[in-house]
Amino acid sequence: MAYNETNNLIVTIPSKGRLEEQTLQFMRKSGLKIYRPNPRQYEAGIEGNKNVKVLFQRAADIPEKVNEGSADLGITGLDLYEEYKIESANTLIIHKELGFGKCQLVLAVSDDWWDVSSMDDVADLSNKWHNEGKGDIKVATKFPRVTRNFLHKYGVYYFTIIETHGALELAPKMGYGHIISDLVETGTTLRENRLKIIRDGIILNSQACLIGNKKALKRYPKKLELTKKVIEYFESQIRAEGYYSIVANIKGNSPEEIFNSILDNGRCEGLRGPTISKVYTKDNTNWYAINIVVYQDELFPVIEHLRKNSSEGILVFPAEYIFENKSVTYSNLLSKLKYK
Amino acid sequence: MEKSNEISSVRGTFDITPNEYYIYNSINENLKKCFESYGYKGIVVPIIEYSELHLRKSGDEIISKMYEFKDYGNRKICLRPELTASVARAYLNNLMSESLPIRLYYSGPSFRYDKPQKGRYRQFTQAGIELIGSNSEISDAEIIWIANKGLCSLGLKKYSLIIGHIGLVLDFLENSGLDERVKRMLLKNMELLSKGGTVQKIRSHFEELDIITKDIAKNENKKYLTDFLKYLEEIDYSKAKKIIYGLLEEIGLGIDGNRVPEEVAERLLFKIKRKNQRKNIDKALEFIKELIKIKGNPKIVFSQINDLIREYNLSKKPLEELETVIENLDYFNIDWGKVNIDLGFGRGLDYYTGIIFEINYDGLGTQEKQICGGGRYNDLIRILGGKRDLPSLGFAYGIERIKLALEIEKKFPENLKNKVTDMFIIPIGNEVLDYVIKVSELLREIGFNVEIDVLERKINRNLEYVDKMNIPFAVIIGGDEKKSKIIKLRNTKTKLEQIIPLEHLKDKNIMSNLS
Questions:
Q1: What number is the average pLDDT over the span B56-81?
Q2: CB B424 within 8 A of CB B399
Q3: A157 and chain B: CB distance < 8 Å anywhere?
Q4: Which of A156, B202, B448, B514 has a CB 3.0–4.6 Å from the CB of A151, allowing a cystine?
Q5: Would you tell me which residues 52-71 of chain A have a C-beta closer than 8 angstroms to some C-beta of chain B?
Q6: B258–chain A nearest CA distance, Å
Q7: What is the ipTM of this complex?
Q8: pLDDT digits over A270-290, tens only?
Q9: End-to-end CA separation in angstroms for chain A
Q10: In whole angstroms, what is the distance from residue A287 CA to residue A250 CA?
Q11: CB–CB of A212/A85 below 8 Å?
Q12: Residue A50 contacts B where some CB pair is shorter than 8 Å
């Protein structure tokens, strides 16, 4: 076990595929721009913060790396975390919804299994086969552990897990798995391969999550401090996702009058309420600047509404971060570290 | 992290150190003696078994907690979660030719992937008995009585016994027209109900699983469908199967995958029929609700059971059995203050068929209070491959919980661990070592447990150690002792020293005066 015994914070992130791309993008948006001179290098730095190091790892290995302490934090899929986590271990989930890498782990069968639509059907069929001496139902998956637990939960006991790392969609047709437990984003691939999802066979809803090593964060205040920064950026960025800041000039006699006129449909409330401030014009006319933050869906209706109220020069910026009074995720982390 | 290199024991397991070893040992010895006094003989079965042994009839509760793995030969193996199935298997494999009944006892580790806490471990010890080949009520009474007697023999007092009979609910379900899976689920839910679950909750759980649906006849659009389904139910089964299969083919929904088309049609038909089970399920839940209310003193509950049997037109056999068992237990002079009848518990094991019972100890947690459980399993041996049902029954104790209960009642003799060593030999100098070894072996032959100093400490340090460890005697041997062929025996308590010539060691009178 190579415990990271320095004051540096080591963050391990996926080294391959879409999850890597999305993680890098997410980190960049969070102000953690990764500095990697050579894309084949497995270690990288963060621009402007030499105390944070980034380690690229196979996503499936990340739970273990964090658990053994060779990394302090890790970003990986919740699916992988659930599959590879170690019971009563050093790892804790710091943020379980980073908002990307969304997928579902589901059970699916050949779509001509007309009689199988629910987990109870699976349980019944497996019993039937077992009683008639036809052997176990074979379940092909890359997630043996969570799949097994899920099947047990629904009273399916006569099954054999076939652990494969190839294309699972082919398993039923090729005969090495009757059922598959596989990740889906939209379900299109399954349908194209003539498979159907079992109605209540959704094993878990997954997305990228942030995990951390309990002991390291407890022992090194410096690491915790750096983690706080990371969390703050992550959280405020996730919160800002889809929000826009609007600045517009608007004509009127007083801030109150403008407030009353634009508020009449409730749309221009912003997060707490609009900011209205005087614009000191050369010709001494009464102009005010209004600043509000709105959600994506509301953007155009609000702009239309502002236009009707004789606004002009409407500037729109995507909100990069929305910081609240304090970070909920960080407070939760602190209480988990102290009381558990 | 300071101890990050230290390997701990696996979660949910624990070491029995010498401090506790003799406690466990004395529990086991006592129970063994008790079992043997009723003619039970010891049997040892393997810790690993084929998973199949437990999958067949162990019940969800146990199966989902089983340690299961594939061995290098690709066989599905499990660590035994309990011992009854193993003993039944051992009977089938080895003891079929012996005369019945066969009385067996066992003790050994079992494994369940449980949430560890005090009184709940992932490796725990079960000790118990099985009586194979008897269907009489006197054998039920014997089993229950021995379970009670074993605890008495350990000196335990504050436990209580619950006796039930799974036959009543099994009899009801047998005639309920419900399919096997639903029956099993209802049995599983019986305990939930008796522990405060509601019928509504169970019903909606069934709906969730699509076992029962809301009444489809109420849906106008489905009226014709309902008629059709009704028709399917009324006609001959194989004809109905053909219709379904033909229908699938006709509308182009063939089956080309890895299933037999008839099977798909068969299951579709089964599902259609099953959806109409709602009334039967409701009736069963209603019955179970009545059943679980029956608990308390034997004499009071018998009339209640009788009413229930009459109301639901059930077989009288379970009640008669229960009455006879109670009567027989009375011959044993059981303490009725400790006994309650409760028809609302199922023991969480699927293999029971008749009388079932548990012994609880209230000082342990609510989930961990059960220290013993058992009952009758008349069809287990057939299910495991026997030619026919072989009436059998048994029980098992949870040894760790019994130990906790004994601790609560402070039933352990002081300093059990220090009873081992009788004498500690202190050599003075290496040149006496030959003599020391000769003497020590002689003393061991006579029957003493003898330790020799192996740290080459000074006399005083050694005497301190002997004192601290509560060893009754120290034997000091130097050049003089060797030359004169004597030993110097020092009584730890009185500090008196006594010289004994070597040739007198075998004189029983002298030595027996020592202890």
A1: 89
A2: no
A3: yes
A4: A156
A5: 69
A6: 7
A7: 0.77
A8: 667 788 888 888 887 888 888
A9: 23
A10: 6
A11: no
A12: no
